[in-house]
Amino acid sequence: MKFNLMTWTNSIKKLESNKMKYFKLEEFDDDPGTGKNMKKDFLIRLEAAREEAQIPFIILSGWRSRETNERLIKEGYKAAKNSSHLAGVAADIKCTNSADREIIVRSLINAGFSRIGIADSYIHCDSDITKNSALWLY
Known about the structure:
4 helices, five-stranded mixed beta sheet, Muramoyl-pentapeptide Carboxypeptidase, domain 2, alpha+beta
């Protein structure tokens, strides 16, 4: 799979009209209506990755409030105090098999994501420019 400029351009046009092909802002909600806190450039990249992958991306976590993030840390989930979810530039995508994992990770890289975490049941991606590029396992 290679990055496709036409796919990227089409994704930008759709988001500029506030309409995404593959996602609804509600999928990124912490509380109802908070998905609007997601950054547009992140969503453009995620749309491009989804277009390339041609498999569903089920969003498990998008934007998070500080309270939700702190609760997740206390409950033992792998949430960082300075999580990129707090800035609206991260998502966790459900993934439980190797075939889909390879497709999703490749499409994320081709769409320009340089921060990707791989767990047994999900893939984290973010476009946080305050952090170094990284690929990690949970």
